[in-house]
Design brief:
With 225 residues, the protein is of the alpha/beta class. It has 2 domains: 121 residues, Rossmann fold (3-Layer(aba) Sandwich), CATH 3.40.50.300; 67 residues, Helicase, Ruva Protein, domain 3 (Orthogonal Bundle). The chain is 44% helix and 11% strand. It has a 5-stranded parallel beta sheet, with helices on one face.
Length: 225
Amino acid sequence: MAVRVQPRQLAFALPHAESLTRDNFMEGPANEAGLALIERWPDWPNRVMLLVGPEGSGKSHLAAIWAEEAGARSTSAHALDAAAVPGALATGALVVEDLRPQDFDERALFHLLNLAREDEAFVLLTARVAPSAFEIELRDLRSRLRAIPVVSLLPPDDLLFRGLIVKFCADRQLSIDETVVSYLATRIERSYAAARRAIDLLDTEALRLGRPVTRALAAELLRDA
């Protein structure tokens, strides 16, 4: 007698749109300083500013809002190249994302800061930690980075954290109720990155198992995570 094997449902990592508009930005005490900086442009205390915050704290979202308003181009710090600096500053405004220790060309960044000053261009840098913690060989670049005003994004409070859980679900068109939000808010680390990972896991496993996202499913998955 032949045994019929049920095919296992596969979960495909389909791309999901994450809106980076001003209307879709979750406001709270943790990010109010960053949002205030973006909204007061071009009245900045310095033409080069630095947004610092943990992974997923909204740095890229704020940078995208500012880029739209200022007509800024965007590049990653890792990809910054000295020869491309004049073109990157062509619009008079530039976002340089994710500045990390020992993961960027020091001479290219120094050239960028010098040219931005000469051209009176605006530059918005983002990083997870302030450059004062970096080991930088170029002395002039080290002093220049330490002189850039820093605006910090903080870990989310409870209200913002719950709102982020709902937003991450909405970005994935994932339907959840208040019991799931409350469960997640009290069981996972209160960080932007942890909230995103939890929603990614729920979405992937709910699809694979063919089950709705419920508190019971969340409890099963987080218990085994």
